[in-house]
Predict the 3D structure of the following.
Amino acid sequence: MSTSPAISVIMPMYNSARYVGEAVESVLAQRFTDFEFLIVDDGSTDGSGAIIRRYAARDPRIQLFTQENSGIVASVNFLLGKSRAPYIARMDSDDICLPDRLGEQKKALDSRPELGALGTQFIEIDGEGQITDDAFRHPVGVDAIRARLLETQPVCNPSVMLRKDMVLQTGGYRPAFRYCEDYDLFLRLSRLAEIDNLNAVLFKYRRTDTQLTVRHNDRQNEQAVLARFAHNEVLAGRPDP
């Protein structure tokens, strides 16, 4: 690994002992290897931190940080501040990267400087790792993404790779949108850069009843409406409310 890695993989973690080992192993198994893997234990009480410490003892690319439970927005902003690479790969502690994920995303971002964010297609799995949907596709093409953003989230957030300098220009993730922090970020990022998805399936997204977005779906929908309203106000030349 070079002194300054090409990619910073950032992963917030809270009570993920059941799945986090598989998530970590999928990152460590990437064919592209020049990355640092930054993980914050957000006050877990189930032994998740001990699992990561065992991996970190074997692989110096892993750095574990601990904090009192502060939530997803504080966790990802903290990791952004610790990251050293120009590209930021988001990862959730219950999902799985396929082996070419990082390499394919870096290749695309290297060749397309107009992109600020790039997601991938994914296979949806359940709590047991069984496939529940392998046919769903997010839109591909910057025009399709821009149009879909005005209605809903068109990128699988934990699959995304971001250009760090552009994310910092937006101000990062905002605490007011703790249930749709990714959607709010993509709306603001779209005013600075293009967003796209690769057409390749490079990720396994786990959906369970205990997920924050499932448990707080109504709040997520409310905040998404507010994020779109704020975005439209800025586009109209008015202050961000």
Summary: The chain has nine helices and nine strands. The radius of gyration is 17 Å. The mean pLDDT is 95.
